Amino acid sequence: MAVVLKTGGTTIGLANNNIIPAEDLDRSYIVYPQINQEKCVGCGRCYISCYDGGHQAMEWDEYSRTQHCNTEKCVGCLLCGHVCPVACIDLGEVRVKKGEKEHALTL
């Protein structure tokens, strides 16, 4: 097993079938992050990733070491949840964009 993972072996290219062109992404809705403050350890990774990612939607209180999402700036990429070391950021509110019809979502 270690040899296969070290060399790539049969794992190379497995994700390729899941990659689609950007224009095929469903952009009719936004999924906002939901932060469990009780579980949060205040590391700030969510804030840094959002800030560095260009959206600056995650707002940070240095004194309390807590954050919240500014939904006016959030694009729903959920990068904040991917970098969280304690998995305290989950899928939250789903908002369908103006002018779009509600439909079943694949999250």
Instruction: Indicate the radius of gyration in whole angstroms.
Output: 17 Å
Mean pLDDT: 85
Tally of individual domains: 1
Beta strand count: 4
Can you tell me the CATH class? Answer: Alpha Beta
Quaternary structure type? single chain
The main pleated sheet reads as:
2 strands, antiparallel
Helical stretch tally: 3
Please give the alpha-carbon distance between the first and last residues: 32 Å
Q: Beta-strand level of the residues, as a percent range?
A: 15-25%
Question: In words, what does this structure look like?
Answer:
Its cofactor is [4Fe-4S] cluster. Keywords: 4Fe-4S, Iron, Iron-sulfur, Metal-binding, NAD, Oxidoreductase, Repeat. It holds the Pfam family Fer4_21. Residues 31-61, 65-94 form the 4Fe-4S ferredoxin-type domain. Involved in pyrimidine base degradation. Catalyzes physiologically the reduction of uracil to 5,6-dihydrouracil (DHU) by using NADH as a specific cosubstrate. It also catalyzes the reverse reaction and the reduction of thymine to 5,6-dihydrothymine (DHT). With 107 residues, this protein is α+β, with helices and mostly antiparallel strands. It has a single domain, classed as 2-Layer Sandwich (Alpha-Beta Plaits), CATH 3.30.70.20. It is 19% helix and 21% strand. It contains three helices and four strands. It has helices at 2-7, 45-53, 79-83, and strands at residues 29-35, 58-61, 66-69, 89-96. Strands 1-4 form a two-stranded antiparallel sheet. The chain has a two-stranded antiparallel ribbon with strand order 2-3. A hairpin with a 4-residue loop joins strand 2 (58-61) and strand 3 (66-69). The radius of gyration is 17 Å and the shape is globular. The two termini are 32 Å apart. The model has no long low-confidence stretch (mean pLDDT 85).
